Amino acid sequence: MIKLLKIEFKKIRSYKTFWILTGVYFIFLSLGIVMAEFIINNMVDNMNRHLPIPLPHVNIFFFPDVWQNIAFFATIRYVLIFPAIIIIILITNEFTFKTIRQNVINGLSKFEFLLSKLYLILLISVVLTLLMAFGSLIIGLSHTSENTLALIFEKSTFITGFFITILTLQIYAFFFGFMLRNTGLSIALFTLYALIVEPILYYFLKSPIVFKNDISTYLPLNAVLRVTEYPAIPVLKKVMGLNLQEKVTLGGCLLPLLYSSIMVLIVVWTMKKKDL
Question: How far, in Å, CA of 16 to CA of 200, rounded?
């Protein structure tokens, strides 16, 4: 594992596109989290103009809800698209520049090559999860006046939810990159599906003109986003009647993991059959 990760690190160490996209991802992620509370309270102010009893402003960064809220805003599809694009570029570059052939010539098997990419995805997921956990802990401590260990870690399962989300979405990108092998086409189709096709399909399947069904729940990307489905904001429950998510469940994680496993198996099978 360490050997394969060292090979991957040599490839990305001087690759400017990787570091630029990583920087852009963190900028969007940080801005999204910082602006979230302001945007929500602005929405509350707009609703209060039409309500006889005004709703109070919300604080989304106190314990234990900070874990859930940051995990939710960090896994909005428009933010998640950046690490996915990074993975697509890293994989398709192997085919564009024929480095995959060079790796095989130098002694790596096709399976080891695939493992090296999966190890990289796992490492990126672990690093991002640790950063999210550390950031949530610091933000929570600075916004909560009275802290106990029980209160601090009450909703810490959302850290696991963030990890599952970021891991599985990168594996989806891994699938697109290996199957299409073209950077522009892979990014275009993945982005088109993630940001346009599936959202349209989701709302179409839920519309009254379609027979009553739960199919939209099982759409691949929706399954990932449902791991951390709602932020812990009481206003959503009061005004919209939503049943807010209390914890990350094993059942909610199984479907995206199942999709990811199937995609990995398809890639392994394809790599055995196709020439490099």
Answer: 35
In the chain, the amino acid numbered 236 is L
Cα-Cα-Cα-Cα torsion 25, 251, 1, 156, nearest 10 degrees, comes to 60
Instruction: Show the CA angle centred on residue 44, arms to residues 43 and 46, nearest 5°.
Output: 65
Q: Mind listing the pLDDT tens digit for each residue in 51-67?
A: 677 767 677 888 988 99
Q: Which of 165, 70, 175, 156 is nearest to 124 (CA)?
A: 165
Q: Tell me the HSE value of 177 on the side-chain side, using a 13 A CA sphere.
A: 25
The predicted model gives 155-179 an average pLDDT of: 95
8 Å CB contact between 75 and 162? yes
Phi and psi for 62 in degrees, rounded to 5? Answer: -105, 160
Q: Would you state the structure tokens that stand for residue 104, as one six-digit string? A: 């095989």
- Distance CA(199)–CA(197), nearest Å, equals 6
Neighbours of 239 (CB within 10 A): 14
Number of Cα atoms under 13 Å in the Cβ half of residue 99: 13
pLDDT in tens, 219-253: 999 999 999 987 877 666 666 556 678 889 888 89
Measured CA to CA, the distance from residue 115 to residue 109 in angstroms comes to 10
CA distance 59 to 267: 44
